[in-house]
Design a protein that fits this description.
Low-confidence stretches: none
Oligomer: single chain
Largest sheet: 5 strands, antiparallel
Strand order of the largest sheet: 8-7-9-14-15
Helix content: 25-40%
Number of domains: 1
CATH architecture: Alpha-Beta Complex
Distance between the termini: 29 Å
Order of helices and strands: HHEEEEEHHEEEEEEEEEE
Number of strands: 15
Radius of gyration: 17 Å
Strand content: 25-35%
Shape: globular
Length: 259
């Protein structure tokens, strides 16, 4: 098969993994209310994955061989945290928080990946706008995921929308291929490709990609948080993150992480 292209059998396996993950995510999202702990969300996700024969894709994951393994199935990132916040030890969600939940699952050898940022009770108008803009940024990026378009088409659409609304797009973290592993090539910037140094890969039928814009209230510069896992905004302002796993078809993009 050509580079990055999945077979029909692989696509069906990935599609099933994605659908099951979307069902699990919907149940986790219902639990996001003031007073719930991140550990409660974690335990529910792990139990639901086990019930369908899956396993967490992130728990135990290492970015390099000597790294500390990631401690949880869910990445739960609160307020100024962008991504990769561990779900344990437990933290209590408070009214006014925004919480990004990123989750991946392996099911029968096939991987799925998705994320949403959710409001905990009533949130500020700035936070509401940030969530709306980030979710719309993902949708605009997905609209560009057609055969013969390029990664630049995805990133440029996202960047123009986000920056036109006065927010920043994180540049140090990118989307990626997915399906047979947690992270595959190509890397997918959520901004114009010329700023990334990455190849401007052309999209083709059979590619499966995780697109996940990370948007900041203020500057897009980031740093590693005190827990050693989460990336946080350098200026301490809010961040949001939305992600879907997408299949490129002859008719355009198919969102796989949906019910």
């Amino acid at each position: 098969m050509p580079k990055y292209i999945k077979t029909k059998e692989q696509i069906e396996g990935i599609r099933k993994s994605c659908r099951e993950l979307a069902i699990i995510f919907a149940e986790i999202a219902k639990m996001v209310v003031p007073g719930v702990t991140t550990e409660e969300l974690e335990n529910k996700a792990v139990a639901m994955m086990a019930a369908v024969g899956g396993r967490p894709a992130f728990k135990g994951y290492k970015t390099y061989s000597r790294a500390i393994p990631f401690p949880s199935a869910l990445c739960i990132s609160i307020n100024q945290e962008i991504v990769h916040g561990p779900a344990v030890p437990a933290r209590i969600l408070q009214t006014g928080d925004i919480v990004g939940i990123d989750v991946g699952m392996e099911l029968n050898g096939y991987y799925s990946d998705m994320a949403r940022t959710l409001a905990v009770g009533e949130i500020s108008s700035v936070a509401q706008k940030l969530l709306m803009v980030t979710e719309r940024a993902l949708a605009l990026g997905i609209e560009q995921m057609k055969p013969n378009n390029t990664l630049n088409d995805i990133g440029t659409a996202i960047q123009k929308w986000v920056e036109s609304n006065g927010f920043g797009v994180v540049r140090d973290l990118v989307g990626h291929g997915v399906g047979l592993a947690v992270h595959e090539d190509p890397q997918i910037p959520h901004y114009a490709i010329k700023y990334s140094g990455l190849p401007n890969t052309r999209l083709a039928v059979g590619m499966v990609l995780a697109v996940e814009p990370m948007v900041t209230e203020g500057d897009w510069d980031i740093k590693v948080g005190s827990d050693g896992f989460a990336f946080v905004t350098k200026d301490g302002k809010l961040a949001a993150h939305f992600e879907n796993t997408i299949l490129i078809t002859s008719n355009g993009p198919e969102i796989l992480t949906t019910i």
